[in-house]
Amino acid sequence: MRPATVWCDQGAWFGLDRRRVLAVMREPVIVGVPGAPPWVRGVANRFGRAVPVIDCGVLAGAVAELASCGQTLVVPVDGGEIALVAAGVLSERSVALGGEHEGFFDRPADRDGLRMIDLLRLAAAIEAALGA
């Protein structure tokens, strides 16, 4: 079992290994990026650096529309950081990882159909979606 930070976005449950969360930005000011895909919400300022804000639910097609962005979870990626939109109330849960894979999610046996974000597969999905 691993500690996870979880949230619900339009009825879909998402989670992230709590140990990977560097910070929570509450109500970040997000500046849009012209021409960016809808799952790129824009960039936010974190200690003077522009951090891309990604909506995983929209990227995966798990939610139909953009959620409000009351908070983001800052996570490490190669070469820097990204912020993930975490709609809804954040809570903590112990999760048994190692379930089936769905894109960049692990789906553990969970009563809510929790989708755990795998950061390495997420980075690969972002690169593929951007055509990099």
List the helices and strands and how they pair.
Elements: E1 2-9, E2 12-17, E3 23-26, E4 30-31, E5 40-46, E6 49-54, H1 56-60, E7 71-77, E8 80-85, E9 91-95, E10 100-102, E11 105-107, E12 115-117, H2 119-130
Parallel strand pairs: 2-12, 6-8
Antiparallel strand pairs: 1-2, 1-9, 3-7, 4-5, 5-6, 7-8, 10-11, 11-12
Give a written overview of the molecule.
- It is a single chain.
- A hairpin with a 2-residue loop joins β5 and β6 (49-54).
- With 132 residues, the chain is mostly beta strands.
- It has helices spanning 56-60, 119-130, and strands at 2-9, 12-17, 23-26, 30-31, 40-46, 49-54, 71-77, 80-85, 91-95, 100-102, 105-107, 115-117.
- It has one domain: CheA-289, Domain 4 (OB fold (Dihydrolipoamide Acetyltransferase, E2P), Beta Barrel), CATH 2.40.50.180.
Oligomer: single chain
Tally of helical runs: 2
Identify the overall geometry: globular
End-to-end separation in angstroms reads 35 Å
**CATH fold annotation:** OB fold (Dihydrolipoamide Acetyltransferase, E2P)
Which architecture would the CATH scheme give at its second level?
Beta Barrel
List low-pLDDT spans: none
What percent of residues are in strands?
over 45%
Would you list the SSEs in sequence order as H and E? EEEEEEHEEEEEEH
Let me know the CATH homologous superfamily: CheA-289, Domain 4
Biggest sheet: strands, sense, closure? 6 strands, mixed
Coarse structural class:
mainly beta
Our Rg estimate from Cα atoms comes to 14 Å
Number of strands: 12
CATH class: Mainly Beta
How many separate domains make up the residues? 1
Q: Kindly report the spatial arrangement of strands forming the biggest sheet.
A: 9-1-2-12-11-10
The overall pLDDT average reads: 87
Helix content: 10-25%
